[in-house]
Amino acid sequence: MSKAIDNLKRAMEQAAAIRPKVGGFPYLAETLRRAGITRNVWSLPACQSLFLSHDGPVAVQGTPLVSGTVDVPSFNREALIVALRVDQAGESTFPEFLQASWRAGVVRYDVDFALRTVAYFGSNGEEYVESYPAVEISQEPR
């Protein structure tokens, strides 16, 4: 296992241990940022995630949301915002959030841990950017 993979796994485990159910994403993001991870780019519907870090890039392949040939949903900013608020309230699982984002026409999203932003993109160049709050974490990542 590479240093980059080991570091990512440790940070994800630590984040899972401290992340609250409601409003937990900023805790995950801050834990990853403190571990030297700079960006996270998700490709939907493939559910492929690319983590960029000081130790090197790491790809994570999740379970795709669709199979075969499918139409890409039109970008729907309002539906995306609803999916975000439901997730932020702790009322959806991460797979449910990904599915709702896909149904809202998101084909990619990009988390910038330094700027504390997430940019969501549609297939025709549509974009919605949202900032997330800074949080304090009491212990340093191992």
And the CATH topology? YdfO-like fold
Distance between the termini: 17 Å
Number of domains: 1
Name of the CATH first level: Alpha Beta
Low-confidence stretches: none
CATH superfamily: YdfO-like
Number of distinct helices: 4
CATH architecture classification: 2-Layer Sandwich
Q: What is the mean predicted local confidence, pLDDT?
A: 94
Radius of gyration from the alpha-carbon trace, in angstroms: 15 Å
Strand order within the widest beta sheet: 3-2-1-4-5-6
Please provide the ordered H/E string of secondary-structure elements. Answer: HHEEEHHEEE
Strand content: 15-25%
**Biggest β-sheet: count, sense, barrel?**
6 strands, antiparallel
The coarse overall form would be: globular
How is this structure best described in words?
The chain has a six-stranded antiparallel beta sheet. It is built from four helices and six strands, in the order ααβββααβββ. By secondary structure, the protein is α+β, with helices and mostly antiparallel strands. It is globular, with a radius of gyration of 15 Å. It has a single domain (3-131), classed as 2-Layer Sandwich (YdfO-like fold), CATH 3.30.1810. Helix 1 (3-18) packs antiparallel against helix 2 (25-34).
